[in-house]
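Customer escalation, tier 2.

The customer says the design service returned an amino acid string that "doesn't look like it belongs to this structure." They asked us to rerun it and document both sides in this ticket. The original structure tokens are below, unchanged.
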């Protein structure tokens, strides 16, 4: 699904669905990354080609590459009104896709009204790792960034049945990742596409606006919650800190 955004009075179609401002989102972090966020007053955005998922920014699977190129040929054949399509044009398209991927910086959030067991286990509660979850809304995230940045939902697709175009590719993921319910921030490098962009980007944010509340990971001891409160106060933030509700006791 696509939406529209207005920039300087002009309406543009997006390649993603834009969540409503009151949509609840979460960022799960280990303690070190949380402290880094507070210290830097900036979100850490990773270059798309540095993510573990090799399909990040992909248009199809490698085994479907010939079929994809044939479809691309047919598309350009129509655009050129029947004139010959050169192989170089197809190669240029793939190069452009790789450059967009390499110059896109991403920061990922989980969308949902409640905490996610999977996200805790993956990012902030495995083994000896104790972490936190920042709870906020899409509207607060927009205000905290305070500049033009793309914020949209990921659509999960079957790449054997659907191929995104170059612009859609970074807003699509395999169905196997559907549990992430991802909303992401994407920023393109300033000054256009570079062949040698940095590996990450720090995006300044208003932390007081960004953070609605903080949850500490399940099974974390009471001292850990107290530590998170102290760290927040050290950086001048008076925010409520809760223990994860996943640690609530059951009655039988």
């Amino acid at each position: 699904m696509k939406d529209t955004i207005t920039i300087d009075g002009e309406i543009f179609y997006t390649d993603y669905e834009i969540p409503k401002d009151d949509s609840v989102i979460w960022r799960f972090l280990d303690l070190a990354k949380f402290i880094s966020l507070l210290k830097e007053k900036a979100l850490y955005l990773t270059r798309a080609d540095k993510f573990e998922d090799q399909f990040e920014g992909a248009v199809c699977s490698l085994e479907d590459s010939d079929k994809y190129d044939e479809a691309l040929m047919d598309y350009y054949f129509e655009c050129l009104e029947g004139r010959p399509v050169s192989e170089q044009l197809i190669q240029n398209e793939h190069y452009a896709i790789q450059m967009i991927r390499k110059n896109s910086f991403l920061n990922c959030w989980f969308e949902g009204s409640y905490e996610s067991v999977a996200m805790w286990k993956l990012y902030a509660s495995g083994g000896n790792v104790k972490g936190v979850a920042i709870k906020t809304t899409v509207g607060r995230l927009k205000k905290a960034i305070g500049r033009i940045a793309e914020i949209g939902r990921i659509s999960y697709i079957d790449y054997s049945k659907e191929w995104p175009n170059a612009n859609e590719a970074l807003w699509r993921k395999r169905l196997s990742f559907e549990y992430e319910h991802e909303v992401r921030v994407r920023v393109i490098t300033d000054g256009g596409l570079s062949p040698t962009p940095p590996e990450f980007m720090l995006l300044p944010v208003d932390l007081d606006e960004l953070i609605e509340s903080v949850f500490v990971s399940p099974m974390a001891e009471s001292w850990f919650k107290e530590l998170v409160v102290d760290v927040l106060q050290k950086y001048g933030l008076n925010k409520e800190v809760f223990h994860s509700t996943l640690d609530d006791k059951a009655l039988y």
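Tier 2 assessment: The sequence is consistent with the input. The mean pLDDT is 92. Residues 59 and 165 are 6 Å apart (CA to CA). Sent an explanation to the customer and offered a walkthrough call.
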